[in-house]
Amino acid sequence: MSRVVPAAFVFRYAVDIPRLDEPPPADALELALGEDCLFPDLTDLCDPDRVPSFARLKVAWHESGIALSLIVAGKTRPPRCRRKTPEASDGLFVWIDTRNTQTIHRASRFCHALCFLPSGGGKSEDQPLALARPIARAREDAPPPPKGSLQAACRHTDDGYQLDAWITASALHGWDTETMNAIGFYWMVHDSELGDQSLLAEAFPYAHDPSLWSTLRLVTPAGR
Asked: How many CB atoms lie within 10 A of CB 6?
């Protein structure tokens, strides 16, 4: 019997992410996010027959921005990344709605599409790269992020890489932690060798429909 409603649509997923005590240093992006920052593997709830995960994502927040740390394992080849074709490159792609609207099907000026690649930057294209991308069919485009407001660092391993990213508040139009406690969020990892891994394993237009994004609740751990 075929499914009329995909399992991913049965619930509106909301995930708590912890607050960092301090943002990463301005001169060196070194993220050591704890296990409390690990994003749960929600695909277990929606697709029991899916292929095993090859990527683990950690997320944390601070008044001054959002920290992301991606670990990709199981590779036998280096990642393939090109500055000119980031949408086809290996790396982490995230979508953020600073208003967490949940009811709009076309992106507003508070919606952002960002990509972080383990390589593709620098003159030799061997440095990590962070870019903002347009959102198709958007009603309004978010302001372009200021220079230096998207940061990425990468450490290559024997079977993959660890990609750390820092999104400063200035890159997120509408970011205001004094008046909000949640944001819309979606993520996907593309790998030319291992395939695609996304927040929810369903083939729907997450890349341009904010109503399909999940919610990140910005929480402060007890004792902080």
From this structure: 14
